[in-house]
Protein backbone atom coordinates (compact mmCIF):
# COMPACT_ATOMS: atom_id res chain seq x y z
CA UNK A 1 0.00 0.00 0.00
CA UNK A 2 1.32 3.45 -0.93
CA UNK A 3 1.36 6.19 1.66
CA UNK A 4 0.58 9.75 0.68
CA UNK A 5 1.50 12.49 3.14
CA UNK A 6 -0.54 15.66 2.52
CA UNK A 7 0.74 18.82 4.21
CA UNK A 8 -1.18 22.10 4.21
CA UNK A 9 0.60 25.23 5.38
CA UNK A 10 -1.77 28.12 4.69
CA UNK A 11 -2.82 29.93 7.87
CA UNK A 12 -6.15 30.58 6.07
CA UNK A 13 -8.57 27.95 7.33
CA UNK A 14 -11.96 29.21 6.12
CA UNK A 15 -10.66 29.95 2.63
CA UNK A 16 -7.37 28.77 1.19
CA UNK A 17 -6.57 28.04 -2.43
CA UNK A 18 -3.54 25.93 -1.56
CA UNK A 19 -5.45 23.84 0.99
CA UNK A 20 -8.18 23.24 -1.61
CA UNK A 21 -5.51 22.18 -4.09
CA UNK A 22 -4.06 19.73 -1.58
CA UNK A 23 -7.57 18.28 -1.18
CA UNK A 24 -7.87 18.05 -4.98
CA UNK A 25 -4.53 16.23 -5.12
CA UNK A 26 -5.55 13.76 -2.39
CA UNK A 27 -8.90 13.06 -4.12
CA UNK A 28 -7.29 12.55 -7.52
CA UNK A 29 -4.50 10.36 -6.18
CA UNK A 30 -6.81 8.24 -4.01
CA UNK A 31 -9.28 7.70 -6.86
CA UNK A 32 -6.52 6.41 -9.13
CA UNK A 33 -4.62 4.50 -6.45
CA UNK A 34 -7.37 3.02 -4.36
CA UNK A 35 -5.02 1.25 -1.96
CA UNK A 36 -3.48 4.55 -0.85
CA UNK A 37 -3.21 5.40 2.83
CA UNK A 38 -3.50 9.16 3.24
CA UNK A 39 -1.94 10.94 6.20
CA UNK A 40 -2.77 14.64 6.53
CA UNK A 41 -0.84 17.26 8.42
CA UNK A 42 -2.33 20.71 8.71
CA UNK A 43 0.18 23.21 10.01
CA UNK A 44 -2.58 25.76 10.77
CA UNK A 45 -4.56 23.29 12.87
CA UNK A 46 -1.49 21.90 14.61
CA UNK A 47 1.17 24.62 14.49
CA UNK A 48 4.79 23.60 14.89
CA UNK A 49 6.63 25.80 17.42
CA UNK A 50 9.71 27.79 16.49
CA UNK A 51 12.98 26.14 17.39
CA UNK A 52 14.29 27.14 20.80
CA UNK A 53 17.63 26.63 22.51
CA UNK A 54 16.62 23.40 24.29
CA UNK A 55 15.37 21.81 21.04
CA UNK A 56 18.49 22.74 19.11
CA UNK A 57 20.57 21.40 22.01
CA UNK A 58 18.70 18.09 21.84
CA UNK A 59 19.15 17.90 18.04
CA UNK A 60 22.92 18.03 18.48
CA UNK A 61 23.19 15.70 21.47
CA UNK A 62 24.35 12.14 20.61
CA UNK A 63 21.45 9.68 20.99
CA UNK A 64 23.12 7.71 23.78
CA UNK A 65 23.62 10.89 25.82
CA UNK A 66 20.06 12.25 25.61
CA UNK A 67 18.39 13.00 28.94
CA UNK A 68 14.77 11.98 29.48
CA UNK A 69 13.81 15.64 29.17
CA UNK A 70 15.61 15.90 25.81
CA UNK A 71 13.91 12.73 24.57
CA UNK A 72 10.56 14.36 25.34
CA UNK A 73 11.65 17.53 23.53
CA UNK A 74 12.61 15.46 20.46
CA UNK A 75 9.29 13.58 20.33
CA UNK A 76 7.63 16.06 17.93
CA UNK A 77 10.58 16.14 15.55
CA UNK A 78 10.82 12.34 15.71
CA UNK A 79 7.13 11.97 14.85
CA UNK A 80 7.37 14.41 11.93
CA UNK A 81 10.44 12.64 10.54
CA UNK A 82 8.89 9.17 11.00
CA UNK A 83 5.88 10.41 9.06
CA UNK A 84 8.10 11.62 6.20
CA UNK A 85 10.25 8.48 6.18
CA UNK A 86 7.27 6.18 5.89
CA UNK A 87 5.71 8.14 2.99
CA UNK A 88 6.05 7.30 -0.70
CA UNK A 89 4.54 10.51 -2.02
CA UNK A 90 4.44 13.89 -0.32
CA UNK A 91 2.23 16.79 -1.38
CA UNK A 92 2.73 20.21 0.16
CA UNK A 93 0.38 23.15 -0.20
CA UNK A 94 2.52 26.27 0.06
CA UNK A 95 1.24 29.83 -0.32
CA UNK A 96 3.87 32.45 -1.09
CA UNK A 97 4.36 34.68 1.94
CA UNK A 98 6.69 37.65 1.64
CA UNK A 99 8.37 36.13 -1.43
CA UNK A 100 9.03 32.85 0.37
CA UNK A 101 7.03 30.39 2.49
CA UNK A 102 4.68 30.79 5.49
CA UNK A 103 6.48 30.82 8.83
CA UNK A 104 4.55 27.70 9.90
CA UNK A 105 6.05 25.73 7.03
CA UNK A 106 9.49 27.09 7.90
CA UNK A 107 9.04 25.84 11.48
CA UNK A 108 8.03 22.43 10.13
CA UNK A 109 11.17 22.31 7.97
CA UNK A 110 13.30 23.35 10.94
CA UNK A 111 12.00 20.33 12.87
CA UNK A 112 12.58 17.79 10.09
CA UNK A 113 16.01 19.02 8.93
CA UNK A 114 17.97 17.09 11.53
CA UNK A 115 21.53 15.87 11.43
CA UNK A 116 21.75 12.10 11.75
CA UNK A 117 18.07 11.66 10.91
CA UNK A 118 17.40 13.38 7.60
CA UNK A 119 20.91 14.40 6.55
CA UNK A 120 24.47 13.60 7.50
CA UNK A 121 27.90 14.91 6.70
CA UNK A 122 30.24 12.53 4.91
CA UNK A 123 33.79 12.94 3.59
CA UNK A 124 32.15 13.84 0.26
CA UNK A 125 29.98 16.53 1.82
CA UNK A 126 26.38 16.52 3.05
CA UNK A 127 24.09 13.63 2.18
CA UNK A 128 20.28 13.64 2.33
CA UNK A 129 18.77 10.60 4.01
CA UNK A 130 15.18 10.83 2.74
CA UNK A 131 15.55 8.95 -0.52
CA UNK A 132 13.23 7.64 -3.23
CA UNK A 133 10.20 9.80 -2.55
CA UNK A 134 8.16 11.85 -4.97
CA UNK A 135 7.26 15.36 -3.85
CA UNK A 136 4.61 17.69 -5.29
CA UNK A 137 4.48 21.30 -4.20
CA UNK A 138 1.29 23.22 -4.90
CA UNK A 139 2.09 26.91 -4.60
CA UNK A 140 -0.31 29.83 -4.59
CA UNK A 141 0.87 33.37 -5.17
CA UNK A 142 -0.92 36.71 -5.17
CA UNK A 143 1.32 37.92 -8.00
CA UNK A 144 2.65 36.26 -11.11
CA UNK A 145 6.30 35.21 -11.04
CA UNK A 146 6.37 33.34 -14.33
CA UNK A 147 8.47 35.98 -16.13
CA UNK A 148 11.25 38.43 -15.40
CA UNK A 149 11.52 40.80 -13.60
CA UNK A 150 9.05 39.17 -11.12
CA UNK A 151 10.70 35.75 -11.50
CA UNK A 152 13.81 37.11 -9.77
CA UNK A 153 11.73 37.77 -6.65
CA UNK A 154 10.65 34.14 -6.28
CA UNK A 155 12.46 32.86 -3.19
CA UNK A 156 9.84 30.18 -2.66
CA UNK A 157 10.60 27.54 -5.30
CA UNK A 158 14.42 27.92 -5.08
CA UNK A 159 14.34 27.74 -1.28
CA UNK A 160 12.10 24.67 -1.17
CA UNK A 161 14.17 22.92 -3.85
CA UNK A 162 17.36 23.64 -1.90
CA UNK A 163 16.25 22.66 1.58
CA UNK A 164 14.21 19.59 0.59
CA UNK A 165 16.97 18.51 -1.83
CA UNK A 166 19.43 18.78 1.07
CA UNK A 167 17.32 16.17 2.90
CA UNK A 168 17.38 13.88 -0.16
CA UNK A 169 13.95 14.95 -1.44
CA UNK A 170 15.18 15.91 -4.88
CA UNK A 171 12.39 14.50 -7.03
CA UNK A 172 10.11 17.53 -6.79
CA UNK A 173 7.44 18.83 -9.11
CA UNK A 174 5.97 22.28 -8.67
CA UNK A 175 2.49 23.32 -9.72
CA UNK A 176 2.20 27.08 -9.40
CA UNK A 177 -1.07 28.99 -9.15
CA UNK A 178 -0.12 32.56 -9.93
CA UNK A 179 -2.00 35.84 -9.80
CA UNK A 180 -4.43 34.76 -7.08
CA UNK A 181 -4.77 38.43 -6.06
CA UNK A 182 -5.01 39.71 -9.64
CA UNK A 183 -8.75 39.48 -10.13
CA UNK A 184 -11.38 36.78 -10.02
CA UNK A 185 -10.97 35.70 -13.61
CA UNK A 186 -7.21 35.12 -13.30
CA UNK A 187 -7.44 33.35 -9.93
CA UNK A 188 -10.28 31.09 -11.10
CA UNK A 189 -8.35 30.16 -14.24
CA UNK A 190 -5.12 29.56 -12.29
CA UNK A 191 -6.93 27.30 -9.82
CA UNK A 192 -8.62 25.30 -12.60
CA UNK A 193 -5.32 24.97 -14.46
CA UNK A 194 -3.66 23.68 -11.28
CA UNK A 195 -6.39 21.06 -10.75
CA UNK A 196 -5.94 19.89 -14.36
CA UNK A 197 -2.18 19.81 -13.90
CA UNK A 198 -2.55 17.71 -10.74
CA UNK A 199 -4.53 15.11 -12.69
CA UNK A 200 -1.90 15.01 -15.46
CA UNK A 201 0.97 14.70 -13.01
CA UNK A 202 -0.71 11.88 -11.07
CA UNK A 203 -1.24 10.05 -14.39
CA UNK A 204 2.43 10.65 -15.26
CA UNK A 205 3.48 9.19 -11.90
CA UNK A 206 1.47 6.02 -12.47
CA UNK A 207 2.94 5.73 -15.99
CA UNK A 208 6.48 6.35 -14.72
CA UNK A 209 6.33 3.97 -11.74
CA UNK A 210 4.37 1.21 -13.43
CA UNK A 211 1.61 -1.09 -12.26
CA UNK A 212 3.02 -1.42 -8.74
CA UNK A 213 1.86 2.12 -8.10
CA UNK A 214 -1.80 1.50 -8.96
C1 LIG B 1 1.19 37.28 5.01
C2 LIG B 1 1.04 37.19 3.52
C3 LIG B 1 2.12 37.45 2.71
C4 LIG B 1 2.01 37.36 1.32
N1 LIG B 1 3.10 37.61 0.55
C5 LIG B 1 3.01 37.48 -0.80
C6 LIG B 1 4.13 37.69 -1.62
O1 LIG B 1 5.23 37.98 -1.18
N2 LIG B 1 3.97 37.58 -2.96
C7 LIG B 1 2.77 37.23 -3.52
O2 LIG B 1 2.68 37.12 -4.73
N3 LIG B 1 1.69 37.01 -2.76
C8 LIG B 1 1.77 37.13 -1.42
N4 LIG B 1 0.68 36.88 -0.63
C9 LIG B 1 -0.57 36.45 -1.28
C10 LIG B 1 -0.75 34.94 -1.20
O3 LIG B 1 0.34 34.24 -1.73
C11 LIG B 1 -2.01 34.52 -1.95
O4 LIG B 1 -3.12 35.20 -1.40
C12 LIG B 1 -2.24 33.04 -1.91
O5 LIG B 1 -3.38 32.75 -2.67
C13 LIG B 1 -2.43 32.53 -0.49
O6 LIG B 1 -2.66 31.12 -0.53
P1 LIG B 1 -3.84 30.51 0.33
O7 LIG B 1 -5.13 30.98 -0.31
O8 LIG B 1 -3.70 29.04 0.24
O9 LIG B 1 -3.69 31.00 1.73
C14 LIG B 1 0.77 36.98 0.74
C15 LIG B 1 -0.33 36.71 1.57
C16 LIG B 1 -0.19 36.82 2.94
C17 LIG B 1 -1.38 36.49 3.81
Features:
214 residues, Rossmann fold, 5-stranded parallel sheet, 6 helices, 7 strands, globular, binds flavin mononucleotide
Structural overview:
Helix content is 41%, strand content 19%. β4 and β5 form a beta hairpin. The protein is built from six helices and seven strands; from the N terminus they run βαβααβαβββαβα. With 214 residues, the protein is α/β, with parallel strands linked by helices. Flavin mononucleotide binds next to α1.
Briefly characterize the structure.
With 214 residues, this protein is an alpha/beta fold. 41% of the residues lie in helices and 19% in strands. It has one domain: Flavodoxin domain (Rossmann fold), CATH 3.40.50.
The CATH topology annotation reads as: Rossmann fold
Rg on CA atoms, Å: 18 Å
The assembly state of the depicted protein chains is: single chain
The second-level CATH architecture is 3-Layer(aba) Sandwich
| Total beta strand runs | 7
Strand content: 15-25%
Global mean pLDDT: 96
Structural class: alpha/beta
Q: How many angstroms separate the termini? A: 9 Å
Count every helix, treating DSSP H or I runs of 4 or more residues as helices.
6
The top level CATH class name: Alpha Beta
Q: Report the helical percentage.
A: 40-55%
Number of domains: 1
CATH homology superfamily = Flavodoxin domain
The largest sheet is: 5 strands, parallel
**Helix and strand string, N-terminal first?**
EHEHHEHEEEHEH
Name the bound molecules: flavin mononucleotide
Amino acid sequence: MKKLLAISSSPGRSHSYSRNLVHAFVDNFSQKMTETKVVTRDLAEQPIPHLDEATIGAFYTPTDQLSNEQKKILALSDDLIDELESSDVIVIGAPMHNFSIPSGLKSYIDHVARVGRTFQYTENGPQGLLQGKKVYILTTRGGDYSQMPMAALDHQEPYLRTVLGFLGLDDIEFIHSQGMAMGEEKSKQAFEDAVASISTKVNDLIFEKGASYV
